[in-house]
TrEMBL record:
GO terms for molecular function: methyltransferase activity. Residues 60-105 form the Methyltransferase type domain. Keywords: Methyltransferase, Transferase. This is SAM-dependent methyltransferase. GO terms for biological process: methylation. Pfam families: Methyltransf_12. It comes from the Bacteria.
Amino acid sequence: MQNDRSELLVEVAGYYATKLAAYGETARGVDWSSEAGQHLRFEQLCRIVNEGADGFSLNDLGCGYGALLDFLSGRYTRVSYLGVDVSEEMIQAACARHQGRAEGRFIFAARPDAPADYGIASGIFNVRLDRTNTEWQNYLQTTLDVLHETSRQGFAFNCLTSYSDADKMRSDLYYADPCELFDLCKRRYARNVALLHDYGLYEFTILVRKDS
């Protein structure tokens, strides 16, 4: 199982390295269609942060070139940020982009090296390439376990939705059932779970809030 996961992550890393090489440090470089859509996703995901919070830590799993750090820095005065990515090229780009910023650091890894108040994963469950539904679902749940284990107050993630228009769905992408994942998170991780499916994109965001 571990070898299968390692091979899967190598495939995903190669896919995103190709996107970065083609489009650079832009939304398209992490396989989003626009900066506006990327910004909207960050807004949904960051609803996991308690209202009025400041001085918190956050792990960004699948950080790409670190766009979320820019987003956070524009809204909070004290954030301790860790970006994690399985693409070495992405981590190199992130380190260069954010050089000298004491509030952020980046590591080339599959999981954070320390727990944080919050964990976020944006877009990492979308591109399954040639993997089967079963393989991808196992990867997804294993990664959610990582988010749970390394987040003290809660975590958030997004997925493409199975409610997407059939004629626009691609075979190399994974479209998750939001109801199944909501149920999984309620039963496995926390009592307080929110499903956001009302922000105009063919996807959804789930917020998992842990008991204080």
